[in-house]
Amino acid sequence: MSKRVGILTGCGKGIGLAIIKNLLSANKDYYIVGISRTSNSELDSLRKLYKERFLFFESKIEDSEKILEILDFVNKRFGEINFGICNAGIRSRLSISESSLEVYRNVLEINTISNINIAKKLISISLENHSACNILFVSSIVGTRGFDELPTYAVSKSALEGFMRSASVEYAKDSIQLNCLAPGFVESSYAENFKEKRKDLYEWTIAQTPMGRWGKCEEMANIASFMISEQNSYMTGTTIYSDGGWTAK
Predict the structure, then answer these.
(1) How far apart are CA 16 and CA 148, in angstroms?
(2) Measuring CA to CA, which residue among 216, 227, 128 is closest to residue 178?
(3) What strands, in cross-sheet order, belong to the sheet with 83-86?
């Protein structure tokens, strides 16, 4: 396999961290650039273990100019960017009546606009380099299903999926693929707190999931790793659900 260079946002914990570990351990020809608003001991350990193949930058995903500078640096250093995984995002658990327009703007800025900013830059780099690129957005089943207290999150994810579908059609002829991975409830960094403080809601999510459990970060990482790989050469404009059967009902 030839060298593959990719960027991944929101890599400090949960699904993002699992994807980083999966990509770096699976193939010695992967060079990964992680972006997260803060570093931590696990990222430090990965930087030591894969010092030649893992670069890390601290940045807020909504700092659009800094993000573009990072992507330019990566392109100049490696001469290409083969894939991007846009995983960073925030949740807002408020009812519609409690969600001000400012909350909508903030969630949309981070979950949608910031990811579109990255995708546009990756597309531009790919066109300049005359190379293929595979872009994956980590969405959510909330983007297509109705949930109490998650209107802002739902809007941000459904808008992101709409952009993905349009961009995939526009750039398919240029060998640029865009897809979404939409997890259900996953045992990421918020899981333990959720189980403890929202026990009734947790039990409801289990009852709604045909497989009777939450997913694991490693399971999402396995899917994401395939979706940005050279093996995935024909899928574009698609949202893949990994939710234990929730959306099949």
Answers:
(1) 26
(2) 227
(3) 54-58, 30-36, 4-9, 83-86, 133-138, 176-183, 239-242
pTM of the model: 0.96
Phi then psi for residue 133, to 5 deg, are -150, 140
pLDDT in tens, 124-144: 999 999 999 999 999 999 999
Q: Per the structure block, which two tokens stand in for 246?
A: 């929730």
Structure tokens, 208: 């709604």
Q: Are 161 and 139 in contact (CB under 8 A)?
A: yes
Residue type at position 106? N
Residue at 43: amino acid letter:
L
Pick from 154, 70, 149, 72: nearest CA to 111: 154
The Cα angle at residue 17 between residues 11 and 21, in degrees rounded to 5: 120
Torsion of CA 110, 239, 141, 71, to 10 degrees: -20
15-41 pLDDT, tens digit per residue, is 999 999 999 998 899 999 999 999 999
Rounded Cα gap, residues 185 and 73, in angstroms: 35
In a 3-state reduction of DSSP, which class is residue 187? coil
Q: How far apart are the first and last CA of the chain?
A: 40
Place of tokens 């709604």: 208
Please write down the long-range contacts of 92-95, taking CB distance under 8 Å and 24 or more positions apart: 92/150, 92/152, 92/153, 93/149, 93/150, 94/149, 94/151, 94/152, 95/148, 95/149, 95/151
| CA–CA distance, 181 with 48 (Å, rounded to integer) | 29
